[in-house]
Amino acid sequence: MADVLKKATRESYGETLKELAEEYKDLVVLDADLAAATKTGIFKKAYPERFFDCGIAEANMMGVAAGLATCGKIPFASTFAMFAAGRAYEIVRNSIGYPHLNVKIGATHAGISVGEDGATHQCNEDIALMRTIPGMTIINPCDDVEAKAAVRAAVEFNGPVYMRFGRLAVPVINDKDNYKFEIGKGVVLRDGSDVTIVATGLMVNEALQASQMLESDGISARVVNIHTIKPLDKELICRCAKETGVIVTAEEHSIIGGLGSAVAETVTECCPVPVIKIGVNDVYGYSGPAVDLLKKFGLSAENIADKVKQVYKLK
Amino acid sequence: MESSMKKNLQKIACKTRMGVIEGTYNAKSGHPGGSLSICELLAYLYFNKMNVDPADPENPDRDRFVLSKGHTAPALYAVLAQKGYFAEDELKSLRHIGSSLQGHPCIKTNGIDMSSGSLGQGISTACGMALAGKLDNKNYKVYTVLGDGEVEEGQVWEAAMFAAHYKLDNLIAIVDRNGLQIDGAITEVCSPEPITDKFTAFGWHVITMNAHDFDSIESAFNEADSVTGKPVAIIQQSVKGKGVSFMENQVGWHGKAPNKEEYEQAMAELSAQLKELED
What is the pLDDT of residue A152? Predict the structure, then answer.
């Protein structure tokens, strides 16, 4: 596995914005003094006249994006997840969500894997915040291929979209030629009959590895990739609940309000089965190398496999 | 200003005040004070200044208007109704369930360019509209109205910085300086003064005008039209509650609806003013 291609989804974001620029003349990009980090700098270099730095002023940036959208532009407002979903929450809610404007929010540096910058910048709450906004679409891609597909889908989609990208380089897993991306459609990456692992973002790769580990223990674990957290693929989630009887969710986000909550809310209505959530357990992060932090916080294939074995006994 | 035009605008402003009273009375809630202080401004913009047409409300070349101080929507609705965006009778449905006239402006309402009312946000969205105009080489202008209390919001100054940086000279922000906010006088609550100096320091061209004098209003907007390379802030000195004797300069009328007696007295005063204009 040593030669698996690894790439941060923020890179995919910046590259795809540039690729889409010729086809979508109304596409413009906003940033808040983080173009080098969010990778919108790639777009800025190629299309400086369509790039607008708003300075360190995220609230205004979201409002400017809203105003641009009322005039037919397709603004991609970019900053770290902490500031996009956190600091600017109320502007996203009232100036973008309420009028249902065609603004795309590119939120990078999501989750604990921000690493060394520590708790103030590790946003584990953004999915929860964005889920509460009526009409908001939330996409959390798991690798380079999916991130690029998500940006393309977002530009073609009419309405507000929150896209969540990571700082850490992650393995490319969607490397098949027949790869397809559809907003709101979950993907069964590996079939299984004993338990379903529902994962999103960089936890999808961990879930796949966990499923392989479990095979040697005689446990058949299905792996479902939920790239679109809202609207959730309820049909698929309910089918998995019925067919496997137990679900383990895995996300690089708080266990409150994110993928795990969305899945639990769904199965309680259609097919109540145990849902065990793996995520950040209602605590703040801290500084350290991203890869080590992920292990420390239990965001690993090993921890998923352990949890599955525990719940499997309950079945 | 030519006298027949002035008289016409004065009548529109007076009818707008009647609409404010009618709306807030029927809603049993709302914000008459700050609505009454912007009636001349709105009459001037919609009936003398802005390139807008109720028969073509989505025209991409039209001027835009964002009521950043969205709680004063009753005045905007009263002007839009007179302009023909919807029936004047609808003003009575203000804030009622099922009404298109929401407590604060909503983009779905005919004639409303942007949802607003969470203070500080409208000016940012107006910046976005002005920037789009620049990108598309369009000649439209974007007008936004802020409260003097509203400029206490930090986002206003983020927007002020942005507008000056991108030289949005197609953006005109009018600050309604009536001196009062919910908790009292702006200078006593947490003073945003000196407002003119602040906009100047942020790189704006600043003009002051008398909010209730159409000659002053016209001269301010003429000056605004001559400015290039900078956004324009017009600080209008106004009287909160203007036109209704017992509401003028009374902080208590910021967000309170008139009862039946007060409604009747206010309408009687405004009817008398209108009659005087019509004679």
Answer: 98
